[in-house]
Design a protein that fits this description.
The protein is 33% helix and 13% strand. Helix 2 packs parallel to helix 5 and helix 3 crosses helix 6. By secondary structure, it is α+β, with helices and mostly antiparallel strands.
């Protein structure tokens, strides 16, 4: 089986798992992966992640032109923008997961650091999450908003819409998206209860020990120099 065929099978397998566990419903959500020739595989528009056909996935060239398969997701601009600013990203997952969407609607959310460091695994696999203002689904303007983050984040929440997460490969992107959703769930469960979160020293220890993006351990998320190192790139060492 070729590398591309394996990726096609993996996209369908992970998509079905995400759908069956209720992390995205109906025909919502989309997945893309980068190929060795610079092209992409993406899930088609209006397709359910639970019922994908490997042969019908959208095959695009490096310029985003459709080469084969069904028409690609209308969210292609946000995928392209995140790939452009996160050079190490090999895959992107966009879901409409309930708790992440709910957090994106809270009025007091810090757009530069949506969720506190509640667990070590959130820090290791996600790092920090930014909030992008609301845009109509498929609006090309969302790409400008993501480019404006200058590669400081591998995970963003689209307000009133859902998470978009990049990873070094498909597995890393899926795991980071799941970790983001679990952290959002914890945040909502403990909302206004003054939970104990990781201290800055504990976060910096994780950054140093697991060689994470230095911006994750910064006191000011905007101090980042735009590094494209994945905060969760070493997640396979995290147990």
């Amino acid at each position: 089986m070729s590398a591309e065929s394996k990726l096609r099978e993996a996209i369908c397998r992970f998509g079905r798992s995400l759908f069956e566990r209720g992390l995205t419903a109906g025909s919502s959500g989309n997945i893309s992966t980068r190929l060795d020739d610079g092209g992409w595989l993406t899930t088609p528009t209006n397709s359910s992640l639970g019922f994908l056909d490997p042969a019908r996935l959208s095959r695009l060239d490096s310029e985003g032109r459709l080469l084969s398969g069904d028409a690609p997701t209308k969210e292609l601009p946000l995928h392209a923008a995140l790939y452009a600013t996160r050079q190490d990203a090999g895959a992107i997952v966009h879901l409409h997961s309930t708790h992440s969407v709910a957090v994106s609607m809270l009025p007091e959310v810090n757009p530069h650091d949506v969720l506190p460091p509640m667990t070590a695994y959130y820090v290791m696999r996600v790092g920090r999450t930014a909030l992008v203002p609301y845009y109509r689904p498929g609006d090309p303007a969302v790409a400008d908003a993501i480019r404006g983050l200058a590669g400081r984040y591998s995970a963003v929440l689209l307000a009133n819409h859902g998470p978009v997460v990049a990873g070094k490969d498909l597995e890393a992107a899926v795991y980071a998206t799941e970790e983001l959703e679990e952290t959002a769930k914890l945040h909502l469960l403990l909302h206004h209860l003054n939970p104990r979160v990781l201290t800055r020293a504990q976060v910096r220890d994780l950054v140093t020990h697991f060689k994470l993006d230095q911006a994750t351990g910064s006191d000011d998320p905007e101090e980042s120099n735009g590094s494209c190192t994945e905060p969760h790139i070493h997640s396979n060492t995290c147990g």
